[in-house]
Amino acid sequence: MNPALLDDFSLEMTGKDVSGLEEARDSIPPGTRINITFLAGEDTGTRLRAARAVKRLGFVPVPHISARRLPSRSALEEFLAGLAADGTAENVFVVGGDPARPEGPYEDALAVLRTGLLRGHGVRHVGITGYPEGHPGIADRTLWASLTDKAAAIGAERFTGDVITQFGFDVDPVLTWLEALRARGVHLPVRIGVPGPAGVRRLLGYATRFGVGTSASVARKYGFSLTNLMGTTGPDRFLRTLAERYDPDRHGSVKVHFYTFGGLRATAEWITRFRQDVPAVGQDVPAVGQDAPAVSRG
Is the alpha carbon torsion for 208, 214, 219, 222 positive or negative? Predict the structure, then answer.
């Protein structure tokens, strides 16, 4: 297995994880893209400080914009202006957000993309969401229509972009979804979401919340048991299987995005160990490539 498997991986943190990022900095390659979530209970100042810290530590900040959490157009402008003033606006990730009802004028990520405000504040790259196993609150046909519309909007605004997927435990639906994505004419690079090493019980809690499959057979493939929830597990098997079955002609450009669940240092150190162990596995394969993850509504 080629150690390039994890070249150009990305990580996720919350606005309150700055101290954790400082502790982990020596384990993270310079220039790594680090997404900064847009969670309830964190104000604009917290999010801007986190983006500045990511940049100061030598990484690429990717602030999230949660459409349904924005109370007004002026709130969006204020956030973008703050990013622009700090030099942290070039890359953003636009997500619908958790609230059942929008807190302001933006129903979804597409509405934010169509404001015309992003480019005017220095945004050049836009990330959007993908759901290989669907979304518990959104019909599949709606998810696909939203994704293709957002990809078209990114192209129309001449942004570069990528798709970051919800995490999962099973490679099969990921590869099936990638083929369906390319068949629909979406050729943006995709970052496959994987959970960093974490307690099994915690992972299952997030999986239940976001509709991720956790049958007994899926759990065994990933490397944990539903009858023993006390241990910790990492994505070793998932990543090896993904690398072995990834076909760039069918699946396009694919990289890896780690949801760290607050464990930035643990995730970064796990990646370092995994990359060191990879060459011993055998044959070469093609390279691929919040607290709660920001998956929410597209």
Answer: negative
Burial class (CB in 10 A: 0-12, 13-18, 19+), 59: buried
Contact between 89 and 123 (Cβ < 8 Å): yes
Phi, psi of 123 (to 5 degrees): -70, 135
CA dist., res. 82 & res. 87, Å (int)? 9
CB burial of 141-179 (b: ≥16 within 10 Å; e: otherwise) equals eebbebbebbbebbeebebebbbbbbbbbbbebbbebbe
- Over residues 195-240, the pLDDT tens digits come to 888 766 677 666 666 656 655 555 665 555 455 555 666 788 889 8
* Measured distance CA(1)–CA(212) in Å, rounded: 27
Q: Where are the beta strands (DSSP E) in the chain?
A: 10-13, 33-36, 60-66, 91-95, 125-130, 160-165, 190-195, 198-199, 232-233, 254-259
Cα–Cα distance measured from residue 180 to residue 165, given in angstroms and rounded to the nearest whole number: 14
Predicted local distance difference test score (pLDDT) of residue 218: 58
Read off the pLDDT of residues 19-60 as tens digits, 9 standing for 90 and up: 999 999 999 999 999 999 998 889 999 999 999 999 999 999
Task: State whether residue 197 is helix, strand or coil.
Answer: coil
Cα–Cα distances (Å) from 245 to 14, 284, 287, in that order, read 32, 12, 11
Q: Give the residues of the chain that fall short of pLDDT 70.
A: 1-5, 199-201, 204-233, 278-298
Q: What is the 3-state secondary structure (H, E, C) of 37-95?
A: CCCCCCCHHHHHHHHHHHHHCCCEEEEEEEHHHCCCHHHHHHHHHHHHHHCCCCEEEEE
